[in-house]
Every structure is written in C-alpha cells, then in structure tokens.
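Record type: ASSEMBLY
Status: queued
Input:
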Amino acid sequence: MSEKMSDKTVTAEELMAITASRLLKDHKVVFAGVGMPLLASALARHRHAPHLTIVLEGGIIGATLLPGKLPISTNEMRAAYGAQMLTDITDIFLYAQRGYFDYGFLGAAQVDMYGNINTSVIGTMESPRVRLPGSGGANDIISLCKEVLIVTQHEPRRFVERVDFITSPGYLSGGDSRARAGLLTGRLGAVVTDLALLDFEPATKRMRLKALQPGVTVAQVRAQTGFDLLLADDMPELTPPTPEEIAIYRELRDGPVKVAVEAP
Amino acid sequence: MEHVAVLAARVERERASKADKADKRMTAEAAVQLIHDGDHVAIGGTLYSRTPMALVFALLRQRRRHLTVSRPLACYEIELFLATGALDRIVSSWVGIGLPWGLAPIFRHYVERGEVAYDEWSHLAMGLRYKAGAMGVPFLPTLTMLGSDLAARLDLQTVTCPYTGQRLAAVPALNPDVALIHAHRADMLGNVQVDGYRHMDVDMARAARTVIVSAEQIVSPDEIAERPDRTMLPHFTVDAVVAAPHGAYPHECYGRYAPDLRHFDGYAAAAKQDGPAAGLRYVEENADKSFASFLNSAGPDRLAALAADAEELAPR
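Status: finished
Output:
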C-alpha cells in the first residue's frame, strides 16, 4: 500500500485479519495460532461470534485476550488468561484428531495451487537456502481440523506452483490424492490474502479466485500469483472493513485507546 | 532417525528401582553427572515456558559431546548447545527463538551447513513419540503427518488397522536417556507438582530412562499430600531433585514469573550480529558461572517485576 498509514488506512495485516474473522461462525471451535489468527478469532468473538471457542496448542481451551497484552507464544501463561480449561499439548491435538475443531487457522511461507504449505525450507533439505523453524502444529492442524483457513500476504514468492517442501499437506497433487494418502477428513476452506478470497475447486482441488478485496482487479491477483488460478463464475468485491471492525481489531492488538490531551 | 527398542527401556526401568531412595536431593552439578557423551536429552517445558534453565546451564558447563536434544518446540537454548559443539542431532517440531525475533541465526548456521541433523516431526507426532515411550509400546497409530514430505524424509511407516483396514501413520516411541524437567514443587522423594500447563512433561519424563527435576521449592511430603491432584510425576519415576528457585529464568514459570523478553532482545541482537561466536560468548558469560550469579546479574528489581507480571496474569 503506497498511501501513508493513518487511522483511516487499513494495513494489509488488518485487511486479512478482518476478512478472515468474518469467515468464523458463532458457536464453533477454532484452533488458532498466535499472531494474526488469534487476533482474527478474538475479533470474531468481540463482534459477530460471541460463543466462538478459541483453542491454542499450548493446551488452552476457551482463550480470551487481554487487549494489548497478546501472547507471543501459545505456551506462555499470558495465553491462558481467562481460559476455561488448561490441558497438555498432545491432548489438544487429540481433540483435533477426534474431530472437535471446526476451524484450523494457518499462515504460510509458501503455498501452492493445491494448498500444500511449506514452513520448513526454502531450497532443498540437501542444500537449503533458508532452513525455516519447521512445522510446529501446522501439519497436525491441516491434517486433523474440519476446515482449514490459510491467511497470508499475496506475493509471487509465497504463491508458488510447487512448494519446495510439503510441511503441511493440502490437497497434495489434487483430485483425490489427499484421501489416497490416508487423510480421510478435513478440507481446505479458504485462502485469505490482502488481495483476494480464494477457495479450491471441488473436483480438481485447484485454487480458485472467488472474490476480490476492494479496488483490486483479477489481473493484479494473477500478477502476484506464481501459478494459473481458476476463476469463479462470479467475482464479487468483498465488503471493506467497517470502522467498528477496525476499531475493535486495533484495541485488541494495541490495548485500549488512550485519549490524547491536546495542547492548549 | 533412531529406532529405540522400547523393550530395552523397560528392562532398564525394571532393573533400576527408583522407589527405594529416601532422599534424591542433589546439586545441579551433581545431577548433570548422570548425563554422558552421546546421550539423548529431552528438555521439558515448551519454547520459553518452564524450561529447566538451571539444569540446561549446568549441562552446558560440562561441554558434553555428541548429544541429541529433543523438545516439543525449541528456543534459544538449542543455539547454546550448538555454539559449544555439544550437539549431533535435534529432534523437534520447531526451532526458533520466538515470533518477534525472526529466524534463529545460529540454528540456521549449523543446520544449513549440514553440521547438525534436524529431525523435524509434527508437534503431535513429538507428543505421541513421548507418549508411546511412556506407555511402553513401540509405536502409536495416528492420522497426522500422512502424505507430507516430513513423513517421507523421516521414512515414517504406516500401519493398516487389523479391524477396519484403515491406513495410519505409525509414530515410533521415543525413550530419551535423560529428561530434564522444571517444576513448581518437589519433595525429597521425587514427587513433583506443577501449576498451569504440563506441556509434554509427563510423557517425556515417563518415557525417559533417567529423570532430573529442578523445582522452585523443595517441600515436605506432607505438603505434596495436601494437594495430590497437582502431582504430575510420582516419586518412582524420578532420579534426582534439584532446588532451583527462578530455575526457568529468563524463560517463564507459570504463575511465578513472566519471561524476561528484554534479555531475549539482547541475545537475539548479538546472535544476529555475530552468529555462533555470540552463542559461545553467552555461554561463557552466563552459563559457565553459577546460576546464582546469573540471577544476580539480572538483579532483584528485574526478578521482582517479572514476578509482579505473573501475579497479574495468573488466575486466582
């Protein structure tokens, strides 16, 4: 975004988080990571989904947030603030394996046309250009949650034809290959970016452009994508973030707004 | 990847009774003598929460060689082992410092040059590996990791369910030689209590051949018995008990003290600038001295402020 950021300018991060938050329905359970997924989930709870249960992999069920004091690890006690239940890490993932979690929320260093995600290595394992930290819970979340939402900035280096390494399996090589690998449950629901909302075409399981962020064109999305995107029949424009959404999001992230005392 | 014979771990467990020792208290220096070159050491807690730093520093001081270290999610303590040449292999699902500090430069230095092996498992697979080890079975079936390059790289095998024909990943048991655990309270017998998250500590400890526990407080067996629901490990799983107030610092200890993120800032900046040399310097300046002097260098005011932060966040 070229404009200078002001209160009225929404950042790419805010746009993605607000778009993603709208996808979370009330009375569901979301498995969220720290950072934007947690903020988006908290925003949904504060707005249209007050009964959304937020689960964090450190062992927290029913996380709430102290505005402005967001955890930076899902394992720290800050993440447990106001929680309904604390358990251990393995136990949390076993709830996912049993099918209790409606949504799983992931970011991606690289994602390909079948929704496979790489967070392990840029280059090859034999001669890595950059060794990334690794899966953490991402492989488990995409394998075990009912519906997975991927949120990431729309750039050619992220949207690649083939990921360098499949850390977390999406639809693998498309068609029924995910099921053939033994992943019988779970589906990829949406990819949310600062340019668009995308999903996966049901038969081929290829990524499909579904809606555009305000003011963005199909050509712009294509230019930022390293593979051929399928296009939905309709191409609606997403509703811009409302002032209410922006205000709640910023308060959750930064803490309560301090009223500036104007100099006389 | 190592395939540990779970039966061998059981035979060793039966041979080495831990139930007949009345007083397992010792210093951190004495406890880490239980760790040998070539051992697999599992480090309790996760990322920067309830990491047994007093024990980690004592182990770093020994300059052991050819260690394997496993952790659910690893923080910068891994870089300290790397910078002192202690590690052959890392077993984890994630290695970094923490979200705000970006990629871990010393970890990258060693792994990208192929000077240390990094066996990357999924987070649940790490948990199930310890759990299988703790259960005394050679593997556990799971629906995770299937179809991924993680599984291919680890040569992860699948099994077919004898009842339904369903294909599952077979995650092999992990029985570490030693587990290092930090807890809130322990008695001299080795009964161990924690508040808050248990991370993967219970399975990790029960899977391990030798278990070393550091505790914020050593309490009497009577005090343990007042709240038996808080007991995470019974005495017969534990070999050594080390008194270590602030023993997870600069990482956090649930309800006791928050992490010292300023300390992390300093470490991360140095590691970014100087790479492995910064890691070695950190060990020499901090771990090689006593843990008490390390805490002194933080200062009582800083420790009090972190305790106040924890107080504010802890449920009452």
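Annotation: Residues 145 and 226 of chain B are 42 Å apart (CA to CA).
Annotation: Chain B touches chain A through 64 residues (CB under 8 Å).
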